[in-house]
Amino acid sequence: MGLSLQKGQALSLKKTDGAALTRVRMGLGWDTAAPVKRGLFGMKKAADIDLDASAIFFGKDGKALDVVFFNQLASKDGSAQHAGDNLTGEGDGDDEVIHVDLGKVSPAVEQIVFVISSYSRQTFDQVENAFCRLVDDSTAGSPEVARFQLTDAGTHTAMIMAKVSREGSGWSFKAIGERANGRTAMDLVAPAANAL
């Protein structure tokens, strides 16, 4: 289990030996808090909630340079790869994953902001057990580095989740947790820029 972060907390992305992390994975998980509905033959079925994890790449001037989301699964510089869209949040663990090879991130990119949006426009009142976590894929066993529990229920449809920023020759991670509204990552470019 990684370090449990609260909103606004940050940490340097370094291994225990002081070396910088080179490959990380941002995982997003969630469950539905919506009332159970009746499925086929009257069987109970939870309502599906289609949350989307996305990554927005920003340059030093705060201008968005690239976006990785369900409709563009890889970054233009080849550093980030979205593992695919999960339409329901069903199952344990990470429901959506974005892999980032920090060594391949374009020098023009200063910060990567991770966001969540509700494509089905359901609000966070209908979501529970939402979390994001950062995993070190450059170390054997892929240990979890940090976890941020997203407990902020409300009528918003998106959240500015966290960011990874250049820090000296390495990178740092910060939990943000700011409410926003939007259906896709494109709707969240401006709110994400406010979190830089």
From TrEMBL:
<protein>
    <submittedName>
        <fullName>Stress protein</fullName>
    </submittedName>
</protein>
<dbReference type="InterPro" id="IPR003325">
    <property type="entry name" value="TerD"/>
</dbReference>
<dbReference type="Pfam" id="PF02342">
    <property type="entry name" value="TerD"/>
</dbReference>
<dbReference type="InterPro" id="IPR051324">
    <property type="entry name" value="Stress/Tellurium_Resist"/>
</dbReference>
<feature type="domain" description="TerD">
    <location>
        <begin position="1"/>
        <end position="182"/>
    </location>
</feature>
